[in-house]
Structure formats: structure tokens, C-alpha cells
Amino acid sequence: MRGLGTKNVYLTGTQYPNCIRSTALDSMSLDYNTIVVTDCCSAASEDVAKANIYDLQNMGIACVTVGKVCVDGIGVGGGIGNQDSQIAKYIVDTFNQLINV
């Protein structure tokens, strides 16, 4: 990913305490700007999701909605660029495809 110039890692998926959390920690430990897109993630219960989001935020990992990525821009330097808006669109499109299967 470094060879491609990747700076931001946007995470979506299921099971906060397993896949999302471990990938977020790996990403952060490798000095990527790590963003968990909370409304494109899931857990066994809302309480599990909230507890993991709380922990991830306390570790310095951004946990935001896809709308925040689109509107405010989350990434290196905090500004949204064309790449971030394309990523946000891809996240929404992929998520919508998954829930319509």
C-alpha cells in the first residue's frame, strides 16, 4: 500500500471486536491515517459497537459516519480531496450493494 501512496485506511465491515478492531490497530501501528466508518460497520449488539468505538477513539483512531467523510473530509491534513470523496462514494455504493443482496 505504501508503494501506491496510500495514506488513509477506511474501514468498514462486521464484528467490531474482531475484524474491525484488529485491522484498525494494525493500520494505526503501521502509521496509516485510520478511519472507521461507523455506519458501515456492525456488531452483535449496539452496546458492543458503542464500547468498541469508544475504545478505538481513545486510541486515537477516527470513528466517523460516511457523511462526515463526504462533507467534512477525514484524511491527512483534515481536508477532503477528490480521492476522499471518491472513496466515500465507493463505501456507500458497496454498502448499499451488500444490504440489497
What does this entry look like structurally?
The chain is an alpha/beta fold and 101 residues long. It has helices at residues 16-29, 46-58, 66-71, 82-99; strands spanning 8-14, 33-42, 62-64. The chain has a three-stranded parallel sheet with strand order 1-2-3, sandwiched between helices. β1, α1 and β2 form a beta-alpha-beta unit. The radius of gyration is 13 Å and the shape is globular. The protein starts with 7 loop residues before the first strand and ends with a helix.
Number of helices: 4
Encode the helix/strand succession as letters: EHEHEHH
Oligomer: single chain
For the biggest sheet, the summary is: 3 strands, parallel
Overall average residue pLDDT: 81
Strand content: 15-25%
What ranges have pLDDT less than 50 throughout 5 or more consecutive residues?
A: 76-81
Strand order of the largest sheet: 1-2-3
Name the shape in a single word.
Answer: globular
Helix content: 40-55%
Gyration radius, rounded? 13 Å
Q: How does the helix and strand content classify structurally?
A: alpha/beta
Descriptive tags:
20% strand; globular; 3-stranded parallel β-sheet; 101 residues; alpha/beta; single chain
